[in-house]
Design brief:
The complex is a heterodimer. Chain A contains 5 helices and 5 strands. By secondary structure, chain A is α+β, with helices and mostly antiparallel strands. Chain A folds into 2 domains: 77 residues, Ubiquitin-like (UB roll) (Roll), CATH 3.10.20.30; 85 residues, Orthogonal Bundle (DNA polymerase, domain 1). Chain A has a 5-stranded mixed sheet, with helices on both faces. The longest helix of chain A is centred in the middle third of the chain and has 16 residues. Chain A is globular. The relative contact order of chain A is 0.15. By secondary structure, chain B is of the alpha+beta class. Chain B folds into 3 domains: 53 residues, Uridine Diphospho-n-acetylenolpyruvylglucosamine Reductase, domain 2, CATH 3.30.43.10; 112 residues, 2-Layer Sandwich (Uridine Diphospho-n-acetylenolpyruvylglucosamine Reductase, domain 3); 116 residues, Enolase-like, domain 1. Classes of the chains: A alpha+beta, B alpha+beta. Chains A and B meet through strand 4, helix 3 and helix 4 of A and helix 2, helix 3, helix 5 and helix 6 of B.
Chain lengths: 180, 341
C-alpha cells in the first residue's frame, strides 16, 4: 500500500506496536499527534529549536519535529503518556506538580521527557559542556544546578519556570543519589 | 514540502547506487539540518537515502594509534567516547558546545561536517543568496552580518561554517574518508572544505554522490592537552561568535608543539597557521601568545559590522593557550612563566 512518496511503518509507542501508512514528509511528531492520538507531545517551533516535542527514541531523547516518521520505522518511542506507571504519575511528574515546575504547561511534556533522557545520559557517564574535565567519568561527579541547566538548554519555557524545573530535576537526581 | 521517496539500504554500495541512480536524491542521516532546510524550502530532494543502517556507526582505534570515527556515529556517542575524551578532549568539548542534548543524539559525524551555514539569508528563499541560488547576489554584505566571516570571504558570500566539531578536527589534522562507486578516497579536513572564491555554493571537495564513511584522527600526543572554548550570544544552545580549539605542548618553558583552530570566522574551519608558526620554539608566556594571536589576526578583513570579532578572536586565542599552560605536565606549572589564571 505504499507508493514512491509514502511508506508503511511499524513503531512502538509506550509499549504498544502500531502499523501505519505515512506520507514520507510526515514528521514523527505529527505521526504521534495526528496519526496516533498521542497529543501529550507538543508542537512548539516545529524547527528543532524549542524542545517541546521531545520524546525518547529507543531510550534517547530526540526532537520529534526534525525526525521523519519513516526514519523512525522499527523504533520504540516513549512519550509523556508512557511515563506514568498504571495511573500513578512518574516521580518526576509528581515533582513538577509539587514544586510548580510549570505555568502554562505547554513545554512540560518535553521538559519531563528531556529530564528522563538527561538522567540516563548522566548515569552513563556522559560529560557536558560545563563539565570541568571531560576525560573523567562524569557520573563520578554530582549533578548540580549548572550541569542541569546546561544539559536542559534544548528545552525552552516561555513562562520562565526554569527555577522550578531545575529544582524538580535536582530532586529526582537526589532521589537517585547523584545530585548535590 | 515537496514529496520524496525514501529508502533504507543496509550496504554502502546500495546507498551509493541509490543516490547515483536518482536525480535529486540525497543521503539522510540525523536529519537535524536537512529536514529543517526541507521545511523552509531550501532543500528539495526527490528521494532520501537513509545511511544510518549501513554499518558506519562505530568508533574504534586506528592501527597507527589514532581513532576512526564512523560517519554515522552520533555526536553524542563521539563526545562521550572514552578515547575521544582522554586523547582528544577538545573534540569532545567542541561537540558538547554545539546544539542541544536532543540534537546531538540525532546528528551524525558526517552530517555535522556537511551542515550548512546559519546565515539567515541562506535559510530564506525570498532573499538573495549566492550559496542557495548562485548568481542571485549576497544580501548579507549590505545587511545583517555581525556574526559573519572575518577571514577568506569574497564579495559573493560572507557566511561562516557553523560546526564546532570541525574546528577541533581541523586542529587535529583529521582526514575525511569517503566512498564512491569508483572506489574509496580521502581528503584532509583542511582540504575537504574549499575556499569561497567565486562559487560559495560549492563548499567541499567531496566528489559528486560520494558518501562520507569515516573521519580518522591521526595519533597525536599533543592532542591530549587540548581545549575548546566558544564565545556566543547566550551561555548555551547557540552557534559560535568565535571559538578556539587549541593544543599545546611545553617543555622547559618553550613551546614544543601547538595547534590552533578557529571557528565562527570563515566559511571553513580556520587553522591558525601564522599563530602556530610564531609560537613554535617561543617562550610559553602571555607575551608570546599575544604576539602569535596578533600575527594571525593581521590577515583578518572584518566587515563593517563585525570588527569586534578581531579582538575577540585574539583574546580567545590568548586565553585558551594560557589555560593550556596551566594544564601541561611541567612540574613548575604556570607560575614559573608569570601566567596567572
Amino acid at each position: 500500500m505504499t507508493d514512491e512518496s509514502s511508506s508503511e511503518i511499524v513503531i512502538g509507542v509506550n509499549g504498544t506496536s502500531h502499523t501505519l501508512a505515512v506520507d514520507n514528509r510526515r514528521t514523527l511528531l505529527d505521526a504521534l499527534r495526528e496519526g496516533l492520538g498521542y497529543t501529550g507531545t507538543k508542537k512548539g517551533c516545529d524547527r528543532g529549536q524549542c524542545g517541546a516535542c521531545t520524546v525518547l527514541l529507543d531510550g534517547r531523547r530526540v526532537v520529534s519535529c526534525l525526525m521523519l516518521a519513516v526514519s523512525a520505522d522499527g523504533a520504540e518511542v516513549t512519550t509523556i503518556e508512557g511515563l506514568a506507571d498504571d495511573g500513578e504519575l512518574h516521580p518526576l511528574q509528581q515533582a513538577f506538580v509539587r514544586l510548580d515546575g510549570f505555568q502554562c504547561g505547554y513545554c512540560t511534556p518535553g521538559q519531563i521527557c528531556s529530564i528522563v533522557g538527561m538522567m540516563a545520559e548522566y548515569a552513563a557517564g556522559w560529560p557536558s559542556a560545563v563539565t570541568a574535565d571531560v576525560s573523567r567519568d562524569a557520573s563520578k561527579y554530582t549533578l548540580d544546578e549548572t550541569e542541569v541547566r546546561e544539559r536542559l538548554s534544548g528545552n525552552l519555557c516561555r513562562c520562565g519556570a526554569y527555577p522550578s524545573i531545575v529544582r524538580a530535576a535536582l530532586e529526582i537526581a537526589a532521589r537517585e543519589g547523584v545530585a548535590r | 514540502m515537496k514529496a520524496f521517496g525514501y529508502e533504507r539500504p543496509t550496504q554502502v554500495r546500495d546507498a551509493l547506487n541509490a543516490v547515483a541512480d536518482t536525480g535529486g536524491a540525497r543521503f539522510l542521516a540525523g536529519g537535524t539540518n536537512l529536514v529543517d532546510l526541507m521545511k523552509v524550502g531550501v532543500e528539495t530532494p526527490s528521494r532520501l537515502v537513509d545511511v544510518r543502517f549501513v554499518g558506519l556507526d562505530g568508533i574504534r582505534p586506528a592501527p597507527d594509534g589514532g581513532l576512526v570515527i564512523g560517519a554515522a556515529a552520533t555526536n553524542s556517542d563521539v563526545a562521550a567516547h572514552p578515547d575521544v575524551r582522554r586523547n582528544f578532549p577538545a573534540l569532545s568539548q567542541a561537540i558538547l558546545a554545539g546544539a542541544s542534548g536532543q540534537l546531538r543524539n540525532m546528528a551524525t559525524t558526517g552530517g555535522n561536517l556537511l551542515q550548512r551555514t546559519r546565515c539567515p539569508y541562506f535559510a530564506d528563499p525570498s532573499e538573495r543568496c549566492n550559496k542557495r541560488a548562485p548568481g542571485s547576489g549576497c544580501a548579507a554584505i549590505e545587511g545583517a552580518h555581525h556574526n559573519h566571516a572575518i577571514f577568506d570571504w569574497s564579495d559573493r558570500c560572507v557566511a561562516t561554517q557553523p560546526s564546532d566539531m570541525a574546528v577541533a578536527l581541523a586542529a587535529f589534522d583529521a582526514v575525511v574518508q569517503f566512498e564512491t562507486l569508483d572506489g574509496p578516497g580521502e581528503l584532509p579536513l583542511l582540504e575537504f572544505y574549499v575556499p569561497v572564491a567565486d562559487a560559495p555554493h560549492l563548499e567541499t571537495a567531496l566528489p559528486p554522490h560520494a558518501l562520507i564513511t569515516a573521519v580518522t584522527l591521526p595519533k597525536s600526543a599533543i592532542a591530549a592537552n587540548s581545549r575548546y572554548r566558544k564565545v556566543r550570544e547566550r551561555a548555551s544552545y547557540a552557534f559560535a561568535t568565535v571559538s578556539v580549539a587549541a593544543a599545546l605542548e611545553v617543555e622547559d618553558g618553550l613551546v614544543r608543539g601547538v595547534r590552533i583552530g578557529l571557528g565562527g570566522v570563515a566559511a571553513r574551519p580556520w587553522r591558525a597557521r601564522a599563530a602556530e608558526a610564531a609560537l613554535q620554539g617561543a617562550q610559553a608566556t602571555g607575551d608570546s601568545f599575544r604576539q602569535a594571536a596578533d600575527a594571525e589576526l593581521a590577515a583578518a578583513r572584518p566587515l563593517p559590522e563585525n570588527g569586534y570579532k578581531v579582538a575577540l578572536a585574539r583574546n580567545l586565542i590568548v586565553a585558551v593557550l594560557t589555560d593550556l599552560v596551566g594544564l601541561s605536565d611541567d612540574p613548575h606549572g604556570a607560575q614559573s612563566w608569570g601566567i596567572h589564571q
